[in-house]
């Protein structure tokens, strides 16, 4: 039986934009990164096992300041540090109310 004290979250396992498209905009003027993320977020929340109150969690390389700024702009904040092999990542979280 799962530990009921652990908060359930939607974890974004990997998200990135090819270097050739970073900073680019759609024909409507929105950033490609934001448009892609909104699609991922919509589909994650539409999944049958998700609930409206689940926060979103993801990891960002501690040296990737551009990505950290992008996620902070979307309402994510530092949750904890994660060590994966020899790399350190920031685990960031955004509440479902954002």
Kindly describe this structure.
Helices cover 24% and strands 26% of the residues. It has helices at 32-46, 65-73; strands at residues 10-12, 56-61, 77-84, 87-94. A four-stranded mixed beta sheet has the order 1-2-4-3, covered by helices on one side. Strand 3 and strand 4 (87-94) form a beta hairpin. It is globular, with a radius of gyration of 15 Å. Residues 1-6 have low confidence and may be disordered.
SSE inventory with pairings:
Blueprint: E1 10-12, H1 32-46, E2 56-61, H2 65-73, E3 77-84, E4 87-94
Parallel strand pairs: 1-2
Antiparallel strand pairs: 2-4, 3-4
| β-sheet strand percentage | 25-35%
Low-confidence parts lasting 5 or more residues at pLDDT below 50? 1-6
Question: Class, according to the CATH hierarchy?
Answer: Alpha Beta
The helicity comes to 10-25%
What distance lies between the first and last C-alpha atoms, to the nearest angstrom? 31 Å
Shape: globular
The strand order across the widest sheet is 1-2-4-3
Corresponding CATH architecture: 3-Layer(aba) Sandwich
Order of helices and strands: EHEHEE
- How many helices? 2
- The radius of gyration is 15 Å
Structural class: alpha+beta
Q: What is the count of distinct domains? A: 1
* Major sheet description: 4 strands, mixed
Let me know the number of strands. Answer: 4
Overall pLDDT score: 86
CATH topology: Aminopeptidase
Q: CATH superfamily membership, which one?
A: Gcn5-related N-acetyltransferase (GNAT)
